[in-house]
Automatic annotation (TrEMBL):
Belongs to the 3-hydroxyacyl-CoA dehydrogenase family. PROSITE patterns: 3HCDH. Keywords: NAD, Oxidoreductase. PANTHER family: 3-HYDROXYACYL-COA DEHYDROGENASE FAMILY PROTEIN (PTHR48075), 3-HYDROXYBUTYRYL-COA DEHYDROGENASE (PTHR48075:SF5). The record marks 144 as: Important for catalytic activity. Pathway: Lipid metabolism; butanoate metabolism. GO terms for molecular function: NAD+ binding; oxidoreductase activity, acting on the CH-OH group of donors, NAD or NADP as acceptor. One of its GO terms (biological process) is butyrate metabolic process. The lineage of its organism: Bacteria, Bacillati, Bacillota, Clostridia, Eubacteriales. Pfam families: 3HCDH (PF00725), 3HCDH_N (PF02737). This is 3-hydroxybutyryl-CoA dehydrogenase. Residues 191-287 form the 3-hydroxyacyl-CoA dehydrogenase C-terminal domain.
Length: 288
């Protein structure tokens, strides 16, 4: 199998990442079916595509024909069978819960054609933790996009010990077709490259705010103006979701019991209040 055999892509999960990955794939000329258990998420994802693509035409970034073709090639369904049944490549972007992912991969293994590749967009769950839920571990890998997936150029492709060279190569080639810059990691490591670096930055930023050395706004101003990052760590946590930061740090702390990894009270407080960032209209900043 090679990249030219990939025609139909299935995206599992229409949330923050899934809906944008789906649009990336149709824009690269693939036929894409996006599925989610939530009808509401599917409706939101469809509404996004229907407003985003014409907006790109208005901005002169896309021709009317390209937008029409992308909309024709994109469909949404709550049925996993319908979405995955004819897929050549599947990108799972469901919630970051191990049990859910393992169940999904077992179902996908049953439903998807035997040659289909099953990739996970998971940020922290390495594919060796889910590959054994399938009978095709050689066709399982991590394909990690960044938020917003339509804009951010990088994808981390992570080859687990079970992943074949062919699967990793096709995934690298798919990234190129999507117009992404990919890095190929041949060893699994928690957080891959970018989230390890980012979490060191956020941890220090949270510590400085907790100690009252500077406010989140001041720290964001410092980072954007001194380091040239488009967003400071607090605005970025609002974008990616304070709930995700909470789950990730809590899990890491519980596994290590290292007091240095204890979630920051600034994160815990907002998590409990349901102030999860942009998606709830309030986090470190207000988006009303
Ligand atoms: N969806 C799609 N496109 C978007 C977008 C969105 N949510 N937000 C902005 N854009 C596009 C705009 O359409 C515009 O495109 P154009 O130039 O082709 O017309 C372009 O991005 C710039 O948009 P704006 O001028 O409105 O906004 P900014 O210049 O402020 O850029 C940003 C917004 C792209 C989000 C920028 O602030 C940025 O790059 N922030 C950093 C994001 C980042 O670091 N992401 C990685 C997060 S870590 C992660 O994802 C890991 C995961 O595991 C959680």
């Amino acid at each position: 199998m090679n990249i030219e055999d990939i025609k139909n892509i299935c995206i599992i999960g229409a949330g923050n990442m899934g809906h944008q990955i789906a649009v990336c794939c149709v824009l690269a000329g693939y036929k894409v079916t996006c599925t989610d258990i939530s009808q509401e998420m599917l409706a939101k994802a469809e509404a996004f595509a229907k407003s985003y693509l014409p907006e790109r035409v208005t901005k002169g970034k896309l021709s009317q024909e390209q937008a029409d073709m992308a909309l024709d090639n994109l469909c949404f369904t709550p049925s996993l069978e319908e979405a995955a049944g004819g897929a050549d490549y599947i990108i799972e972007a469901a919630v970051e819960k191990m049990a859910i992912k393992r169940k999904l991969f077992a179902d996908l293994d049953r439903i998807a054609p035997p040659q289909a590749i099953l990739a996970t967009n998971s940020s922290y769950i390495v594919s060796s933790q889910i590959a054994d839920a399938t009978k095709r571990p050689d066709k399982v890998c991590n394909m990690h996009f960044f938020n917003p997936a339509l804009v951010m150029k990088l994808v981390e492709v992570v080859q687990g010990p079970h992943t074949s060279e062919e699967t990793a190569q096709i995934t690298m080639d798919l990234c190129a077709k999507l117009g992404k810059r990919a890095v190929w990691l041949k060893k699994e490591i928690y957080g891959f490259l970018v989230n390890r670096i980012l979490s060191a930055l956020s941890q220090e930023a949270l510590y400085l705010a907790e100690m009252g050395i500077a406010t989140p706004e001041e720290i964001d101003i410092a980072v954007t103006n001194a380091l040239g990052h488009p967003m400071g760590p607090f605005r970025l946590m609002d974008l990616t979701g304070i709930d995700l930061t909470y789950y990730r740090t809590m899990e890491r702390y519980q596994n290590s019991r290292d007091p240095k990894l204890k979630p920051s009270p600034l994160v815990v407080e907002r998590f409990i209040k349901g102030e999860w960032g942009k998606k709830t209209k309030k986090g470190f900043y207000s988006y009303e």
